[in-house]
């Protein structure tokens, strides 16, 4: 399969610099549109949250833009929105992510606001309460969303007694218990430059972008910043565990079935990923889509997903079906998982998925956001700057046998979590 | 950035739009049909969307599971959308693979099979799609508000269609709809990306020009009379959060009032833009956000003015603060609107809305798929000239124009106001 390397990011056109304070900067130019995207993360997330104040990392991240020492809430957003720019933070288990975009002439403004919100948040009391009401409303909506509840239930089964079993946005009682002082302290003790990664992609000289980051964030330090907690070992499921959440008044049920999968850095990841494409991605969502949607007509959506990530993220199949068809859909999905771990995918199926993986790369890397996301993955998973140039070889190295071995390591039809939320 | 744009008309009436963009080895091809939920009558609501689904079910040349595999194998991205006024199919492919997409579109313009067993299995898929929507309180509210706002015009039903019709429409209904509207004289093809226009046109001619023109498709839309007074309604449900949605009757895309209305929308609820791919920005400095969210009456607010063939609606959607009553929120909403009716916005505020629109265009132009989208999209309700003039038309808007729009359209007797009320455990 021929691939046009000239359009793919590589060592020749990615600037990568590690600042003395521990920030990794990645930049790549794209002069096709007068816009620029920033993307990145800090080494702080819900892993630091206690059970009693679960949601604290998320609340803190959401509060960063509610006011800084120099600017109030409206001042921050007026600066951004007046020029059609945007910026936001979001918190996950391991990291707190940020992203923004602007016309390229406003990149210095974007970086200035990033630095200001990261280093000088004011957590104004009035804004904290307003934000709390918004977060609590989000949790109320979550409790009545069949997809969200199936996902949370799935996590609680697969990641019992593990940090991945906890929702990063917390519970109504834990979010209610968080005080403004908690936010101030969490920020002071956990936010720092070490482990931070930022990618800048757009109509700017890559070295210039690196210099701007150096100017705005190069002098940031926090000697309190702790090491990330170690992720405890996960005990794999030993049996089929099914749990249902009843949400009255709903019309459709959401189903999630699966187990813990390989971390992104696992040697089995590529084989698992290609196998997953055959299982529930390729074309109209692979074998799962063929059986559940095309043949049985049970669902508008049915697919499988392999999360990867820093730790053992989920490998799961999702579908939305009429409540009367839940049993049938679960049986069909389990039976496909059974087949998937018993016999290797065919050479033809694997060849299709390989071609798709390689062929779609230029499209995935078309926009600034797509490239910025790709640069972040390079840093996060130590993939190497030449990763996208080696990508086709990595894909082509997978065989039906290695895909089967990866599937067998993580999935078994009798050792799955089955989470269903519906009426 | 090198680009050249041209339009052409095939002998069968099909319009071709080509835009060369040589920034990446990618081509995005879009085929647009002038058919949507606007062309549907009771008994057949949702038929355009269902036909769109059937267009993925195969032809003799490209049977159903050959089709999607062929596109995916080449690394292509493809999808289709059905809207009020139009249905569109796109493929974005590595440039050297685009021929597959062009061949496929020429083929399924005339040769789709609509096999009875495929129709039946797709019926349950679409019912499942609708049931997924029905899980959402905002879908339930939106459907009720829309139906009340459009009693006569076919914009009154949701694009997915009414359940009664999804249960009863037949294979022949679907096939007739397909044959009536999927004719080259009712289609526009827009291709953007890394190609030579002369070569591309030749290939398109080879594939499409021999397809016979059909009779001019029937149009079923009837003009909507004025509301003559505010209509209010309540939807009850088991979710615990209250929502408010208002639809004000609004001008069609080619109306001169459309442009100042877009500026007004930007001031009230934040900029919307015309991107299908490329996203938008936050709205925290918009006047309704400040009044309702900063005033602790709501936790979120949004709005939008869709560009349509016939006059449609300006929608405002509010998520009510858990400790507030919807009626208090409605009073504050009306105060904020009255303010712009009484006093025009500053010239700076209008200029700011234009700068926001420029930024959104820049984000949208990062994607060749989105550039392909823009061309055909604007043809469906106006023309590509409308699109190209969009920023200039926005720039010409004055504060007095914005005030006049607020005075003319954003008045209670021109709206339907719906509230989603939690039943709090009682049976809905």
Can you tell me about this structure?
The complex is a heterodimer of chains A (423) and B (428). Chain A has helices spanning 56-63, 73-81, 107-119, 125-143, 146-158, 172-177, 180-190, 206-217, 269-280, 282-295, 326-342, 347-359, 361-364, 368-380, 387-396, 400-410; strands spanning 15-18, 24-29, 35-42, 86-91, 96-103, 197-202, 241-246, 253-260, 299-306, 314-321, 417-422. Chain A is of the alpha+beta class. Chain A has two domains: 10-217, Metalloenzyme, LuxS/M16 peptidase-like (Cytochrome Bc1 Complex, Chain A, domain 1); 241-422, Metalloenzyme, LuxS/M16 peptidase-like (Cytochrome Bc1 Complex, Chain A, domain 1, 2-Layer Sandwich), CATH 3.30.830.10. In chain A, the strands form two sheets. Chain A has a six-stranded mixed beta sheet with strand order 1-2-6-3-5-4, sandwiched between helices. The longest helix of chain A is centred in the first third of the chain and has 19 residues, at 125-143. The radius of gyration of chain A is 23 Å and the shape is globular. Chain B has 428 residues and is an alpha+beta fold. Chain B has two domains: 3-208, Metalloenzyme, LuxS/M16 peptidase-like (Cytochrome Bc1 Complex, Chain A, domain 1); 231-422, Cytochrome Bc1 Complex, Chain A, domain 1. Chain B has 16 helices and eleven strands. Chain B has helices at residues 47-54, 64-73, 98-110, 116-134, 137-149, 163-168, 171-181, 197-208, 258-269, 287-293, 326-342, 347-364, 368-381, 384-388, 390-395, 399-409, and strands at residues 3-9, 15-21, 26-33, 77-82, 87-94, 187-193, 231-237, 243-249, 298-304, 313-320, 415-422. Chain B has a six-stranded mixed beta sheet, with helices on both faces. Chain B has a five-stranded mixed beta sheet with strand order 7-11-8-10-9, sandwiched between helices. In chain B, a hairpin with a 5-residue loop joins strand 1 and strand 2. Chain B is globular, with a radius of gyration of 22 Å. Classes of the chains: A alpha+beta (423), B alpha+beta (428). Chains A and B meet through helix 2, strand 5, helix 4, helix 10 and strand 9 of A and helix 2, helix 4 and helix 12 of B.
